[in-house]
Structure formats: structure tokens, C-alpha cells
Write a structure and sequence with these properties.
alpha/beta, Rossmann fold, 2 domains, eight-stranded mixed β-sheet, binds nicotinamide-adenine-dinucleotide
């Protein structure tokens, strides 16, 4: 099949490449000229494990192209995937301007019948609204499909190629058959393609993200209870994870969730409730616990220094919102860095992948180093904000010899208090007794 993918960000690039890899001809289009120029020159604008090789292979095989021209992308494509951003407005509801801009450009460029597949996470009812808009802007026939995306950054290629399920919200049997045909290569292990109404498909995406976020916030609430009562959240987590009704995913305590999805989707979903006169009690609480969790961690750090961090050199390991991505959006590390900078601290950061985005975000207000231990030289403390693998088993002797003050604030519970104490460190973690 010939496919156009509108929006070549974290989702669009993976979707376009994954579909090309099963033999389809895909053209990815984006308004960002720099991004498209970067892709056309064989570089990737984002860090995502395994993606570079996959893009290169499909470009080489002439199944994958990048352009800024809608007409070029849509000319021959039967399926047009929308993968543009849906960030929050200042009020917290979803900003759909990128989606509507994409719709208008598709309408203008459509030379005949097209199937418009929406992968952007949008409030329930959006697809009906954009269907109406399309019909006002073009005389060409079309069908619409909602096909929410569940990939996780850092594991996006694998998640897209081996999904737990595919959800398709659709009103036409013929289109359903096309979607089944499209996704058949991804579902060979028997995972289901679930057909449902357009509104149910839109709601499913919010429900999944809310459920995942709720697990994290609930464990963080228990982490705080553990601290208050002298229990150890890591032990508690093992007890919880072993329950087959619960399982081990998304119950790691820490400094809260970030990223471009969970925080904004929760708030957008609360707005959906509000619009219908409902109160989203749990959704609001999940967000509140998350905000509080980040604030608590910042407070632990500041309190240690008596709220006087001016002139202190603080090292930070990991700035991306989670490991194996260079994405900083809504990352808990940003809250920590902002608070330290506001207090006048010198912040020295090391992240394995996110240097370019750190520069974009902070310019020269933070010092970025390119080696793990360089960040620790003469540091008055180390803050761990992202659990990259390379931080898990560090050389404690070397750390101790480099740091001016031996204190670690571990937002991801990577170490044990006993080991850190043996090496002479003060150690603060989440939901465990500090030493
Ligand atoms: N990032 C994730 O892990 C993830 C997972 C599942 C679903 N989603 C959802 O998928 C959607 C896309 O997320 P993302 O993280 O890829 O966003 P992103 O910001 O990384 O990428 C969006 C891209 O769309 C481009 N764009 C904006 N308006 C455009 C237009 N009118 N025409 C063409 N291109 C346009 C932007 O330049 C950008 O490159 C969002 O709705 C998000 O909630 C994201």
C-alpha cells in the first residue's frame, strides 16, 4: 500500500518506518524543514534505540521518503496517518491546532478518496469534529479511522513492531478490512486487532494512560507512607509485583512520571469530565500525587543544604524523562534543575543521549559534560533523576574520591543504603530510610 504519515516526530517516524519495513511505500511529511533536511541527509532528529538502522534500511530500499510537501506525500497514498502533536493548552485541555492544521492541508492536497487514520491522542469527539471539517473543506470522498498508538519512547520500535493489541475505531467494514490487512504482519503471534466505535477508540487511549499513571502515583504514595513508617518500598514493591492480579509493570517508585504523554493526557481527560459536569476524582489525584512527588524530592535536596544552595556545585545524572530517549518534555529532572538554578547553584549534568536538547532548554545556564564521572569533580552532591543502565553499578570509590561532599539524592532507588554507607556517603532515596 502507499501511505502518507503527517508529523514525523517520536510517533510518526516510528510508525512510518515500521510500516515501510513490512513492505509498504511510506512518505513522511513534516512542517519542520530542519527535521526533514536532517532525515533526508540520513540523520535522525531523535534518539530511539534501533530506529536508525531501520530508517536507513527502508530509505535504501526506496520504501521510505521524507518531505515537507503535503501534495507529494498524499498524491498516491490511500492511507493518510495523522501523527502530529497534541500538547496541553495553558488551561490544560488538548491543543488541537496541529491536528486541524494537518486536516486543512490534507483537504487541500487530496486528489481523490483517502482514508484518514488518526494516531494523535485527541479528546473524545475530535474525530467527528475533524470529519465535519474535512467535509467542509474538500469535495473528495474519505473515511476516518481512530488508531491510537501505545508505543513507549525508549522501546518504541519494539512496541510498534510487536504491539499488545491494535485498536481500530471505524465505521466502515471495507475500511476495517484494509486496516486488518495493514496490521496483519504485526499480529502474527496472535495478539488481537480490536474493532470498536470511534469514540471508544479515542477513550481507550486515555484510559490506558490514566491506568498506567495511576499505578505509578499509587506506588509513590506508598513510598511516602513507607518513609513515614520505616518500611522499605522496594520490598513492598516486590510483594505487590508478585501478585498475579497486579504484576510488575509501572509500579516502580520514584520522582514521578514525565514525558509528553501521561501528564498532558491525564489533564486533558480531567477536562473531558469537567465539560460534562463530572468530577474526575482519581485522575485529579493521580496528577496531584505526581506533582507532589517531584516537589518532595526537590525539598529533600534543598533541605539538606539548609535551603542555601548558592555557590554549591550539584551534579545531576540523567536529564531525559526516562532512559533510552533524548526527550526532556515534562521530565522530573527539569523541576530539580530549575529549583537548583533558582537557588543559585552551579548545575553540572551528564546524560547519555540528551545533550542537544539540554542545550536547547538551558543554553549555558547548566554545564553539560560528556562523561559520567566528569560531572562529579568537586561536586557538593549528586542527584540521580533518570535510571539509565550505566548509573546502576558505579565505581563508588571513584565517586567518593571525586566529590567534595559525599551525598547522593537518588530519585530512582538505584542503590542500597548499606553499600553507600560503607563508602561514606549520605544517601537519600525514595520510600526507604535515609542514611
Ligand atoms: N511520544 C509518545 O511516546 C507517544 C506515544 C503514543 C501516542 N503519542 C501521541 O502521538 C502524537 C504525536 O506525539 P509525538 O511525541 O510524536 O509528537 P512530536 O511533537 O514528537 O511530533 C509531532 C510532529 O508533528 C509535526 N507537525 C506539527 N504540525 C504539523 C502539521 N500541521 N503538518 C505536518 N507536521 C506537523 C511537528 O513538526 C513534529 O515533528 C501526540 O498526540 C501524542 O500524544 C505519543
Amino acid at each position: 500500500m502507499k501511505i502518507a504519515v503527517i508529523g514525523t516526530g517520536h510517533v510518526g517516524l516510528v510508525v512510518g518506518t515500521g510500516l515501510a519495513d513490512t513492505g509498504h511505500y511510506v512518505t513522511c511529511v513534516d512542517l519542520d524543514e530542519e527535521k526533514i533536511a536532517c532525515l533526508q541527509s540520513g540523520q535522525l532528529p531523535v534518539y530511539e534505540p534501533g530506529l536508525e538502522e531501520l530508517v536507513a534500511r527502508n530509505v535504501e530500499e526506496e520504501r521510505l521518503k521524507f518531505t515537507t510537501e503535503f501534495s507529494q506525500a498524499i498524491r498516491d497514498a490511500l492511507l493518510v496517518f495523522i501523527c502530529v502533536g497534541t500538547p496541553s493548552t495553558p488551561r490544560g485541555d488538548a491543543d488541537l491546532s496541529q491536528v486541524y492544521d494537518a486536516i486543512d492541508r490534507i483537504a487541500e492536497a487530496m486528489p481523490g478518496y483517502r482514508i484518514i487514520v488518526n494516531k494523535s491522542t485527541c479528546p473524545v469527539g475530535t474525530t467527528e469534529a475533524f470529519k465535519l471539517r474535512l467535509s467542509q473543506k474538500t469535495k473528495q470522498p474519505f473515511d476516518v479511522v481512530v488508531n491510537p498508538e501505545f508505543l513507549r519512547q525508549g522501546a518504541a520500535v519494539d512496541d510498534f513492531m510487536r504491539p499488545d493489541r491494535i485498536i481500530v475505531g471505524c465505521e466502515d467494514v471495507r475500511v476495517e478490512e484494509i486496516m486488518k490487512e495493514l496490521y496483519a504482519p504485526f499480529l502474527r503471534t496472535g495478539k488481537p486487532l480490536l474493532l470498536m466505535s470511534i469514540r471508544s477508540a479515542e477513550m481507550s487511549k486515555y484510559a490506558v494512560n490514566a491506568m498506567l499513571a495511576a499505578r505509578i502515583s499509587l506506588m509513590n504514595e506508598f513510598a511516602n507512607l513507607c518513609e513515614a513508617y520505616g518500611a522499605d518500598i522496594n520490598e513492598v514493591r516486590e510483594g505487590v509485583a508478585a501478585d498475579s492480579r497486579i504484576g510488575p509493570s509501572y509500579i516502580f517508585p520514584g520522582i514521578g512520571f514525565g514525558g509528553s504523554c501521561l501528564p498532558k493526557d491525564l489533564v486533558a481527560c480531567s477536562h473531558l469530565a469537567e465539560e460534562k459536569g463530572l468530577k474526575a476524582h482519581i485522575l485529579d489525584a493521580v496528577t496531584a500525587v505526581n506533582v507532589n512527588q517531584q516537589a518532595r524530592f526537590v525539598e529533600t535536596i534543598l533541605a539538606y543544604y539548609g535551603h542555601r544552595v548558592a555557590g554549591k556545585r550539584i551534579a545531576l545524572w540523567g536529564v531525559s524523562f526516562k532512559p533510552k530517549t533524548d526527550d526532556l518534555r515534562e521530565g522530573p529532572a527539569l523541576r530539580v534543575i530549575d529549583a537548583l538554578l533558582e537557588g543559585g547553584a552551579e548545575v553540572v549534568v551528564y546524560d547519555p543521549a540528551a545533550d542537544a536538547n539540554i542545550h536547547k532548554q538551558y543554553g549555558d545556564r547548566v554545564r553539560v559534560v560528556t562523561k559520567t564521572y566528569l560531572a562529579l569533580e568537586q561536586a557538593d552532591g549528586l542527584v540521580i533523576t533518570t535510571e539509565w543502565n550505566e548509573f546502576r553499578r558505579p565505581d563508588y570509590e571513584r565517586m567518593a574520591s571525586l566529590m567534595r561532599e559525599k551525598v547522593i539524592f537518588d530519585g530512582r532507588n538505584l542503590y542500597t543504603a548499606k553499600t553507600l554507607r560503607e563508602h561514606g556517603f549520605r544517601y537519600f532515596s525514595i520510600g526507604r530510610v535515609s542514611v
